[in-house]
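W.,

You were right to be curious about this one. When I first looked at the sequence I had no strong expectations either way, so I just let the prediction run and decided to look at it fresh. Below is the sequence, 108 residues in total, followed by the output.
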Amino acid sequence: MAIAIGAATFGKGVTETVGKRITALDLPGSLATQISAATGIYLFSMMGVPVSTSHAIVGAVIGVGLLKGARAVNKRKFAEIFVGWIGNPLCAAIFAALVYSLLAGKIF
C-alpha cells in the first residue's frame, strides 16, 4: 500500500530527477542506461545477490553522464541521492525495529 501511495505521489518527481536532473538523457543514453541497469540486475540476481533496481538505474544514468564529461553530471543531485542511499536503509531498519517491538510486545 505504501509503495502505491509513494508511486502516486512522488513517481513523477522521481522520474523527472532520474531522467533529467542528474544528467540530460537522449535516446541512445536512455537505451544504454536501461540495458546496463537490467544487465547488472540480472547478473547479480543470478548470483543470489539482492540489488536495488533504483540504485542500478541511477548508477547507469551517472555512468552515461560521466561519459559525456564530469560537468554533465549534476553533482548536487548526485550527493542528495547518495545520502538517500545511506539514509533510507538506516531509517527503514530503525522503523522496522520499532514496529516489530510494538507488534511483538518487546521493548528495547
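Here's what jumped out at me. The chain has one domain: 2-104. And, maybe more interesting for your project: The chain has a mean pLDDT of 91.

Coffee later to discuss?

I.
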